[in-house]
Amino acid sequence: MTQETTALAHSTVVRVSTERQSQSGNRVRSAARAAADSVPVVRTGPTGITAATPLVMFTSGGQTAFYGDPSPATVRDLVDELEAGTVPTAAADAVTEHDPETASLPVPERGPLSVGRRDVLGPCGWVAPMEPADWAFVSTEQPADAAAGAGLLGRGRGDAAADEPIAEAWETASTTDGDPVVVCNANDASGLSTGDDTLLSGAPMAVLDGIAVVAKHVDADDAVIYVNESQTAVQAYLREAIDAAADMLPVVPQLVAGPDEYRAGEPTAALEALEGADRIEPRLQPPSPAKRGLYGRPTVIHTPRTFAQVQRAVADPGSLDADAADPGTRIVTVTGDVAAPATVELGSSASLAAACEAVEMDGSFKMACVGGVLGGITRSLGVAPTAQSLRAAGLGTDGVVELFDGDRCAVETVGKRARFASEENSGRCVPGREGTKQLTELLRDVYDGSFETEKIRELARVMRRSSNCQVGAHAPRPVTTAIDEFEPEFRAHTNGRCPSGTCTEKL
């Protein structure tokens, strides 16, 4: 049979949800295509649930059967059953009844896919990611008023309006002299948060459409997608997506690769990289990028997560609650000591604990680091995923929850993060350059019998208030929150004892 590229055009279809470069996914898809005579087999993008990848979905009319990571032989038998006129439900991991014309993955009642919501993540795993026919573009006709008026906040560390109303940056960029430009910052070298990657792989048309919506709103003729230079597969994938959508978009972005460095993901450091600077470091602010950004032009910088939220808000204006302090949803990656990471979507009334239902821990839960490599340490995940709740709890907002089991040492865990900050800061400001070194040394002193908690906290206060870069400002957060939660462990180390039994030498 001929290769099918669209999923939504068929009432009976086999979907194979996988990463494009996945060998097992390609084998499963090849097996399904080889077995199919009349039923189309379509590759869709990832759902965000790694444990269920590849995921094969057998749909006919308004019923879908889900099979996580089936063998090629099993897939061939299931395809035969579907072609015989029956949805193969007997051994399915889940079965759903749904609207036959749904453009969003129908959520099972149980299992990892049932965790949270699937609003922005809805198309991921269900639509053909490279097929414009599977997507309803809004940028050509619909204004961005719904997203701007609802007070949508920027998402992610790489967003120049992170946890701030994005409409303010749009207004500044559109009213400042010069030709505005829009940048999609998708360069995250930490490897922890996979929310942006899931969207770029599973719903690239949503991100491209969102970029075009913002570009039209600020009257920009130019847009750039900034990615990690080491992710060559992602680059090839996005070029294909851009080419496929070019005729549907009023503004077609250019793809540019930047350094595989943590610091290069900070918004103004991203601008330096895009301009080809030899030294990648964040810029002094003010002025903000919205006033003086890429090559001196007014610049709007958001992450793929933010652009996808914008697109969703424009496509469905009722999806955002303008009265909420943090409208929309938050995409969260749960990783750490788990069998397989998962990316889920949570509403503002949910808690981070709900996201953990999508994974299986290797051991018993001890603590979590919330908000990325320089997030906050906590024993409790009964916190709403909103920016306000996370900040009030001393946690980060970068959409990452790392779960750690009982074998983890709190002192060692935060010590490694302090050392990471001392190595990854740009060196531009004294608090970032010298403060991170002092913080690392103070933690090393704990192993030598000296725990100067007040000195650590005072250093943390100075770094938070005076650092020019995110690394310097956030580096103390894992340390101070760990002391709040596990001070007895720090004191035990001064006596030469690691309660977890894992520390054998100084950091």
UniProtKB/TrEMBL annotation:
Region (Disordered): 93-116
NADH-ubiquinone oxidoreductase 51kDa subunit iron-sulphur binding domain ranges (all copies): 411-456
Transmembrane segments: none
GO function term, MF aspect, one: metal ion binding
Annotated Pfam families: Complex1_51K, NADH_4Fe-4S
Superkingdom to which the source organism belongs: Archaea
Keyword Metal-binding attached: yes
Keywords assigned by UniProt, alphabetized: 4Fe-4S, Iron, Iron-sulfur, Metal-binding
InterPro entries with a match to the protein in the record: Nuo51_FMN-bd, Nuo51_FMN-bd_sf, Nuop51_4Fe4S-bd, Nuop51_4Fe4S-bd_sf
Keyword Metal-binding found: yes
Stated family: Belongs to the complex I 51 kDa subunit family.
Protein name, UniProt field: NADH dehydrogenase
Organism lineage: Archaea, Methanobacteriati, Methanobacteriota, Stenosarchaea group, Halobacteria
